[in-house]
């Protein structure tokens, strides 16, 4: 069984998040491996944090959720980067902080960084977290959420909102995420709406997304199209999108699609 999160680390993480005014979450492939997507969504809603997924964690947060901000890769937008760097507490769960999505560890993350990973060797790779939790992503998110509830970290009532002159955390987080999505959509609008051959990758992907049922399993290959798929092709379930990982293996998409079709013929 995956290890339980250490109680002391959970309490320290909860302390940081309870005091956060602008938290953010990064979700990696470990969220998928731990079957923690549902937990991730509820946790993000509890603290009102925008969620960015890594390219290996794509679709662990439904990409039509109000708190979804974007996907991290070599083609990450300046707005998504700024959203994460301007957070006061950043929770990275199930990520190894690889050189690809961090763009060789060039992000300037807040000092209050919480890193949840199943592999001890991931801790300290490029970044020194304030709190490191070497444990299962699902169990850790559940434990931190329980600790936050024990601190009565609930959304403020209307009177408290008036006194503090602030919006609800969920609304603030959704606004931050929406600002990133809007900027990204505006940047790719011309590519997305092109109709003359040869079609740009973005317009082809947009046509596919419109035509395919929501639950269709899609596999992506390595190459330039992979980057466009990561940042512009919406995916909604962690098991419905198959993407090359760190090694970017060429030729993955066709055998991956064959395997997915055999295992899930109805999708």
Summarize the structure.
With 267 residues, the chain is of the alpha/beta class. The chain has helices spanning 7-18, 29-33, 37-47, 78-85, 137-150, 158-164, 169-192, 201-211, 224-232, 253-263, and strands at 23-27, 51-54, 68-72, 89-93, 113-117, 131-134, 218-219, 241-242. The strands form two sheets. It has a six-stranded parallel sheet, with helices on both faces.
Could you describe the 3D structure shown?
The chain is 42% helix and 12% strand. The protein is of the alpha/beta class and 267 residues long. α9 links the parallel β7 (218-219) and β8 (241-242). α3 (37-47) runs parallel beside α5. The two termini are 30 Å apart. 41% of the residues are buried.
Task: Supply the key terms.
267 residues, alpha/beta, two-stranded parallel ribbon, 10 helices, 42% helix, 12% strand
Cross-sheet strand order for the largest sheet: 3-2-1-4-5-6
- Major sheet description: 6 strands, parallel
Q: What distance separates the N and C termini? A: 30 Å
* Unreliable stretches: none
Strand content bin: 5-15%
DSSP summary, beta strand count: 8
Helix content: 40-55%
Helix-strand sequence: HEHHEEHEEEHHHHEHEH
Mean pLDDT: 92
């Amino acid at each position: 069984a995956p290890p339980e999160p250490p109680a002391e680390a959970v309490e320290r993480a909860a302390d940081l998040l309870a005091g956060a005014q602008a938290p953010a979450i990064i979700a990696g492939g470990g969220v998928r491996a731990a079957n923690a997507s549902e937990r991730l969504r509820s946790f993000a809603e509890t603290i009102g944090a925008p969620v960015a997924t890594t390219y290996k964690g794509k679709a662990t947060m439904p990409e039509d959720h109000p708190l979804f901000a974007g996907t991290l890769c070599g083609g990450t937008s300046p707005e998504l980067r700024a959203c994460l760097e301007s957070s006061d507490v950043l929770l990275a769960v199930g990520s190894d902080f690889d050189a690809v999505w961090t763009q060789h560890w060039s992000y300037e993350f807040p000092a209050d960084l919480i890193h949840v990973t199943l592999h001890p060797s991931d801790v300290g790779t490029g970044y020194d977290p304030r709190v490191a939790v070497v444990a299962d992503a699902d169990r850790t998110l559940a434990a931190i959420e329980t600790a936050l509830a024990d601190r009565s970290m609930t959304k403020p009532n209307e009177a408290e909102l008036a006194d503090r002159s602030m919006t609800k955390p969920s609304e603030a987080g959704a606004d931050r995420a929406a600002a990133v999505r809007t900027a990204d959509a505006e940047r790719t609008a011309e590519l997305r709406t092109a109709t003359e051959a040869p079609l740009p990758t973005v317009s082809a992907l947009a046509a596919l997304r419109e035509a395919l049922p929501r639950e269709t399993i899609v596999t992506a290959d390595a190459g330039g199209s992979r980057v466009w798929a990561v940042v512009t092709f919406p995916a909604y379930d962690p098991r419905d999108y198959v993407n090359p990982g760190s090694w970017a293996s060429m030729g993955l998409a066709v055998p991956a699609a064959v395997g997915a079709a055999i295992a899930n013929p109805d999708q």
